[in-house]
Structures are given as C-alpha cells and as structure tokens.
Write a structure and sequence with these properties.
Chain A is an alpha+beta fold. Chain A is built from 21 helices and seven strands. Chain B is globular. The chains are: A alpha+beta, B mainly alpha. At the A-B interface, helix 14, helix 19 and helix 21 of A face helix 6, helix 7, helix 12 and helix 14 of B.
C-alpha cells in the first residue's frame, strides 16, 4: 500500500478538479504526453493527473497503458493504441480515438509499465468509471472498488458520492467507501460506522472485508466490532446457504414429483406395478425431441413455443400407448401383481430397444426455449428459469390432477372403481373402460414429465431407467393411494437428498436416502400418509 | 444314511434330473481333457466355460425359485447376493495375485496402489486364506438376507413392496460398489486373476475342475432344495405362499419360515456367484444392477416356478438364447427378452415345464366337452 501514498495525497486535490473537469479538457494532449515521457515516478504523477481530468478518453487510454497496448510512433511521436490484429497492430489515435490504420511493432515504441503502475492505473480507472454517464458502469466500478478495498480510492468515491443520484448505486458506493475506510488509517469512530455498513451487506465479499479488518485492526474496539460483524455475516451466509439448499431440494423434489405422480395413479390407485413407467417418461422426452426437430426444419420462428406444442402431444402419445398396454397386457394380469411387474419390465425393455432402433442410442439434443434460459438472484440464491419453470409446472400438473380426480365425472368413476369395484360396476360404471382411462391418464402424465425432464436430463433410451426406482420410493414413502403423500414425499426426499449431499457426497447421499426409506417402510409399511379404512386391502 | 433318506424323498423325475446334471458335469471335462482336439467328441474349452457359467446361473435361478416359487417372495435383489459371493471370491483371487500385479506390491492389489492406499483395509484381512473366503461367500450374503428379511418380514412387508425394497437394496449396493472409496475396486471391479489354490485360472485343467464343482454345487443345491421343499417345513412354506394370513391365524410363525428360506436362498446365490467369478475372470459392480436380478427371475418364470427342475431348464434356455442372439442379431436380443417376459407371464404361467401339463389339461377339457 505504501507506494500508493503519493497518489493518495494527490487525490483530494484532484477530486475537486474532477468536478470542474471541463476546465482541464484542453490539456489532454499534454497529459498524454506526460504519460509517455520520464521515468516511472513521473508517469505515476501523470496517471493521477489523467484520472483527475475526468476526460472521456482518459479511461480507454489508461486501460491500454495497463494492458501494454499504448505505443508511441517512432516517425512522428504520435501516441497510439494498438490492438493485436493478426501479425499487425490495429491502431487508433489515443487522443481523438480515430482509427489510424495498422502498423507493425517495429515502427512503434511500447510505453512500458510495471506492476506498481498497473495497480495505480487500476485505481485511477476505477475512480474514472465512477463518474461514467452509464449507470451500469458506475455500479460495476463501485463493486470493483469494494473488492479492492483500497484507501486511495476514498477521495474519488467521496466525489462520486456527492454527484450520484441513483440510490442503489449510491448505496454500492458508500459500501465501497466503507471498505476503503477500513483499509485506510481513519480514526476508530469512522471505522466503526464503516463496519456497521459493511455488516449490513452480508455477503461473501463483506465477510472478507470484516475478517481482514478483524485481523489487522490495532484499535481493540474496531477489532471487536469487526469480529462480531464477521460472525453475524457468517450466520447470515449460513442461512442463505441453507435456503439455497432448500431451493435445490425443492427443485429436485419437483422432478421426483413429476416422475412419480403418474405412478401414484397407476400404482397408488389401481395397484398396478408399471415398471415401464420410466419408459413413458422417456417417450414424452422423445416426443419433445421430434417436435423440436420438425420446428427447427420447417418453422424456426415457433421454437420458443416448442415445449408448449410438445406438452399435449407427449400426453397423447404416452397416454395412448398406456391405454394400449392396459388393454393388451395388464388387464389379463389383474390380481397377479408380481406377474404384472415382470410383464411390464419386459415391456420396458421392448420400448427401450424400439427407441434405440429408431433414434439411435446416443443422446439427443433438446434445446431450451429463450424463456427457460437464464437466471436471476433472490437475495443470495441463484435461481435458473429452467428450474423455476419445472417447479411451477410440476405444481400445476399436481393441482390439475387433484381437480380432475375431485371435480370431474371421470375422477368420480375412477375413485369409485378403486374403492369398490363390484359396487361401481353394479351402479353402471363400465369398469374396464375406467381402468384403461386411468392407466392412460397415469401414463400421459409420465409423458408430460418427459417434456419437462428433457430440459434437464440427457434424452437417451435409458432416460426412464434412472427415475423408476426413485419414483417407486417416492410413492411408497408418501403413502400408496394418496396424492398429497406423493407431493410431500417427493419434496421431502428432494430436500433431504440435497442436505445430505455436501456432507456425504452425491452417491453416498443417495444410498443413505435409499437405506432410510427401506428402514422407514419397516416402521410404516403403508407410507407416511396411509389410507385408512376399507380401501387399504 | 441321510443321503439315502433324502434320495428316497424325491420323486423319480428329479432323481433322474440330478443324475443328468452330474453326468454332464463329469462328461464334459472328461471329453475336454481326454480326447484330442479335432476329434468328433472333443469339447472345446470355451464351450465348457460357457456351460460352467450357465450352471452358476442355474444355481442362482434355483435360489430365486426357492423363495419365489415355493414361498411367494418375489426378490428382485438376488443378483446382489450372487455378486456379494462373487466379490468374496474375487477378494481371495486378488490376494493370490501377490506381487505379480502391474505395480508388484506384495500386499496391496493393483487398484489400491493406484488409489494411493497405504495399507490393506480391515475387511480384506483373512481373504488370503481360501477357507476364510469360502466361509465369507456363504456368510456375507446370508447376513445381508438375514438383516433385510428380519426387518421386512417382521413388519409384514409383502408382495410388491418387498420386491421394490429388494430392488432398491441391490441398486443402493451397486451405487456403493461403484465408489472407489469402498476399497473394492470401484467401477473397474476386480480382474486379472492369476491362480486359485495354486492352480492357474487360465489352465484348461483348472477350468474343468471349476466346471465340475459348479455341476456338483447345482446337484447339491437341487438335493437340499428338494429336502426343504419335501419336508413338513416345505409344506408350511407353500401354505405361506398361498394363504399367508390363514397360516398366521393357525398359529404358525410365518416370519420364521420366510426368514429361513430367504437366508438359505441367499447363501445358494452367494455360492453360485463365487463359482461364477473364477470362470468368467472378472467381477464388477454392474453385477448388482437391478436388471440382472430381474433377468434371473425371468429364467425361473420361463422354466416354471414352483418346480425344482424348471429354473435350471429356464436358465439354460434363456442364456443359450442370449448367447446366440447377442452374437447373431444384437438388435433383436432386447426385443426377444422383453417379449419373453410378456409371453411367459401371459401365456405360460407355469413355464416350459408346465407346458406339457397345460396342453394335456386342454385336450382333456376338449374331450370332456366333445360327448356333450
């Protein structure tokens, strides 16, 4: 830090000059000339003067200097900025910013800098950009200065703060100022105020500032306040981390929910073990791929709507195949659950191989529409749009299913048939038809899940295999025949999995969850939310 | 005397079948060893090795049948017991390599040297002794079966729930064995075996002995299973399969019956795995994959569940088909396998062995209808 002292002493005087920058505008050529002549000490002074000038061109010139791209032409002593362009250098006039053709390094003298100067330049550029007309640049400059926490930027920050109108940028600047105060030799009361301000920021960078202050401060009061502040920030950070894990867990849970919810219908309410359920998910994902493929070749402008188009199609494809399976195989096996399990397992092999024969065994690429890419911050949680939409989608599907079962005639028939088949039949409900539709519904929902999963998983013939055991675990854990149990089960398992991961690693975490469920089923063989009454047996 | 008692307890067809297994067990190695290559009767080593593999599969199928066909417990995790037995044998064979490994470490197997292990993990101690490894082949699968069965049967987890739990068990074990930290070879497993009891595993003579041992193990498995199934205990077992609650109300301790047969079956599967590993020369975590266990169930279903001959025949039929199809038409194999699952459950609930009975029953029904 010592080497910055001269600059630090210079800056207060220059800061006032910043505001009256226009007065100095005419001196830019002189300032630039100062940069290219004399020893390193002179250059340092010149850099300070440049920074103080507030000139538009000052920042690019200084940046070029730091990058070693500032040259003086041997023939006419013109100062140029040279960017590498093949073997040549693309030249621009430093002062006017006009292009000046190209040249080779042999015709030019590079203006030399050393590491110390680079540090000075960086601080100078930081304070220059603080005055930039672009709000984003100003904000970034404030953030950069916060991370640098350099006493020498204080003056520039003070000047910028006085001129700043935007309250958010003002906030960022005062935080940067506080960090700079903590790095300077300001009196303790000022430092205590600064600690309070930094502490409120409560993120990883502020933790760094406070920890550094706690380590280096000589005043005991400041040391204690910084230590306490760091502790508080650490706690806040831990809370945010937990919140982030909860979000990841909910995100994983929503994927599990999507995969398991169709199974909750076929297994939970019909008692049919459908080992080909994962393949229904896979078919949904391949439907998405086909839809996107057609859109790419024939109607590219519809690409953003591709998933919305794929949704009903995936439902119809998977649901239709589900009805065929029920009519063709499963209806002959009612009352023989173990045989159903084996037959549907065989079916899953056939479906996998069929898809492999048609589409090949390699992964197929399914693109994300623009509204599903990108991310945003909530506090310190990073939320990607893709994951957010999957959570929302799974909840929509869940709600729609509940409505269907409770409020429509089909739902009424389904519940009647699962609760008491002979009685429902006697009341005139065509039970075979209801069976087929129920199975089709469960499979169709698996198809919908496939559309969503195509966004986060590899679309390959093995896609479904990875979900089948997890889905069964969710359904069994939540309680067979209970949709809300499935919801709670999926979210619980998702969150538990994500909390175990940092301690046990992904694979061991998964094993622990499986063992946990196996033990859990011993305690409560009917799951978390067991159905009571006659429908149990 | 005991053998005579056992022998007389079996029906004729089973006796003939056991003798057949033993005869093939003796004949193939003899033909391989005594006839010169090129002779019409010469059995090539690869065929013997293949048949040896099938014999191990048949023993695994028999183990599955014992719990499924006779006690109604559909285990989708028997591959785990098979693989555990195989891993015990693999650990013994790894220790036999000694300093002949790539890294030449006298104590640590190659993969441990590669993963920077400094000393042998505690669970590897003892596996340099053949007798210890052979005890573990039986003990470890049995212990796992005991723990799982004790929990599951006591809290009356039955039917498909049990199937799914066993499947989750083998899946969890597969994930665990894939980890390098397990100290059991990670995803590469164990291979490059050199010798067993001082004989090279590559030599034809050793192969012939291993093959013979597999045939004997299968014959013994059949005899033990027949003894269990034919006894009063076996009758109770079948009753548990058909009407579990009624047996419970009659005062039988259903859990005890199930637990015994489950552990016995796991031990048989472990032995099958132990014989399998030296013949194929490798053991890795994919043996734990749930698909393998379900395939074993298919062998039983194809052959005929609830019979002792059925699973053996089923294992041979399906695996011959697999060997032939994966070689000739690899695309078709999964279609065929999948279709087999469906066809067998829909049309052949009693399997190939029951086919004759099914045909006879149909023709009798036709005859009975004809005069009317």
């Amino acid at each position: 830090m010592l080497f910055l002292r001269p600059l630090a002493m210079l800056l207060p005087a220059l800061a006032s000059a910043l505001i009256a920058a226009t007065a100095l505008a005419a001196d830019l050529p002189a300032l630039v000339a100062g940069l290219t002549t004399g020893g390193f000490g002179d250059r340092e002074t010149a850099i300070g003067a440049m920074a103080a000038s507030g000139e538009q061109r000052a920042a690019p010139i200084l940046e070029a200097l730091a990058a070693g791209q500032l040259y003086v032409r041997k023939s006419d002593n013109l100062v140029l900025i040279g960017k590498p362009d093949g073997n040549q250098l693309a030249l621009t006039e430093a002062i006017s910013g006009k292009p000046a053709g190209s040249g080779s390094e042999a015709e030019l003298d590079r203006v030399r800098v050393n590491n110390r100067l680079r540090g000075v330049i960086e601080a100078a550029v930081g304070s220059l950009t603080l005055m930039s007309p672009d709000a984003k640049v100003r904000r970034e400059a404030a953030e950069a200065l916060f991370k640098r926490r350099d006493a020498s930027s204080l003056a520039a920050l003070d000047a910028a703060l006085a001129a700043e109108k935007d309250p958010r940028i003002k906030r960022a600047m005062s935080e940067a100022r506080a960090a700079s105060v903590l790095a300077s030799d300001a009196p303790p009361p000022q430092k205590l105020d600064a600690i309070a301000l930094v502490r409120e920021r409560a993120d990883r960078d502020s933790l760094g500032v406070l920890e550094a202050t706690a380590n280096s401060a000589t005043d005991p009061e400041v040391k204690a306040a910084a230590g306490a502040g760091a502790g508080a920030v650490r706690q806040t950070l831990a809370a945010w981390e937990a919140a982030q894990n909860v979000w990841y867990g909910i995100s994983l849970g929503s994927v599990l929910l999507l995969a398991a919810i169709g199974l909750a219908i076929t297994f939970g309410t019909m008692g049919v073990i459908n080992m080909a359920h994962g393949e229904m998910v896979m078919l949904g994902a391949y439907t998405t791929f086909v839809v996107q493929d057609i859109i790419r070749t024939s109607a590219p402008h519809l690409f953003d709507a591709s998933l919305l188009i794929a949704l009903p199609l995936a439902f119809v494809v998977a649901g239709g195949i589900g009805i065929l399976i029920e009519r063709g195989i499963i209806r002959f096996l009612y009352g023989r659950p173990l045989d159903t399990l084996l037959a549907t397992w065989g079916l899953s092999l056939v479906l996998q191989q069929a898809v492999r024969s048609i589409f090949g065994s390699s992964n197929r690429e399914v693109g994300a529409p623009s509204w599903m890419s990108g991310a945003f911050q909530v506090g310190q949680i990073n939320v990607t749009y893709g994951r957010l939409w999957i959570v929302v989608f799974s909840l929509i599907v869940f709600a729609a299913l509940i409505l269907l079962l409770r409020k429509t005639p089909l739902g009424l028939y389904m519940r009647a048939v699962t609760q008491n088949r002979p009685m429902a039949s006697a009341m005139g409900i065509r039970t075979p038809r209801v069976d087929a539709l129920t199975f089709g519904l469960g499979s169709g929902i698996a198809g919908l899940a496939g559309v969503a999963l195509s966004q986060i998983d590899n679309v390959s013939p093995n896609l479904g295999q990875g979900y089948i055991i997890d889905s069964f675990m969710v359904v069994v854990f939540g309680g067979v025949g209970n949709l809300f149990g499935t919801l709670i089960g999926a979210l619980t398992l998702g969150v538990v999995n994500k909390f175990l991961e940092p301690y046990a690693g992904a694979v061991l975490g998964k094993i622990l969850v499986l063992v946990f469920i196996i033990l859990f089923i011993q305690r409560r063989p009917r799951g978390l939310f067991a159905l009571k009454g006659r429908s149990v047996e | 005397m005991i053998t005579r008692f056992l022998w007389q307890g079996m029906d004729r067809s089973l006796r003939i079948f056991i003798l057949l297994v033993l005869a093939i067990g003796v004949a193939l190695p003899l033909l391989n060893q005594l006839t010169p290559p090129g002779s019409a009767f010469h059995v090539p080593a690869w065929l013997m090795q293949l048949m040896g593999k099938y014999l191990c599969y048949a023993l695994l199928a028999l183990a599955v049948d014992l719990v499924w066909g006779f006690c109604g417990i559909l285990s989708l995790g028997h591959g785990a017991f098979f693989a555990l037995g195989g891993y015990c044998m693999g650990m013994y064979l790894m220790r036999q390599i000694g300093s002949r490994g790539v890294y030449g470490n006298p104590l640590l197997p190659d993969f441990m040297v590669f993963l920077n292990y400094k000393e042998l993990p505690w669970f590897w101690y003892g596996f340099n002794h053949f007798w210890f490894a052979m005890i573990m082949v039986v003990v470890i699968p049995s212990l796992l079966a005991l723990a799982l069965g004790w929990f599951a049967f006591r809290s009356r987890v039955t039917g498909v729930y049990l199937s799914i739990i066993t499947q989750a068990m083998t899946f969890a074990l597969m994930l665990a064995f894939f980890r390098n930290d397990m100290g059991l070879g990670g995803n590469n497993g164990m291979t490059d075996f050199k010798e067993i009891l001082g004989f090279s595993v590559q030599a034809d003579g050793t192969r012939a002995v291993l093959y013979f041992a597999s045939a004997v193990a299968l014959a013994l498995g059949l005899i033990v299973s027949a003894a269990v199934v034919g006894s009063r205990f076996g009758k109770a077992l079948t009753a548990v399969r058909d009407a579990e609650s009624r047996m419970r109300f009659l005062g039988y301790r259903v859990e005890g019956y199930k637990l015994f047969v489950f552990v016995l079956s796991a031990a048989m599967a472990g032995i099958a795995g132990a014989l399998y590993v030296p013949q194929v020369g490798i053991i890795n975590p994919s043996e734990f994959s749930p698909a393998n266990s379900i395939e074993a169930v298919l062998w039983v279903a194809v052959g005929g569940r609830g019979t002792l001959i059925g699973p053996v025949i089923g294992a041979f039929i399906v695996n011959f088909g697999k060997t032939w199809l994966t070689g000739a038409l690899p695309e078709v194999w999964l279609f065929a396998l999948g279709a087999l699952f469906i066809v067998v459950t829909l049309l052949l609930p009693k399997g190939v062995v029951g086919l004759w009975g099914q045909i006879k029953a149909r023709s009798q029904a036709k005859k009975a209808r004809a005069p009317a």
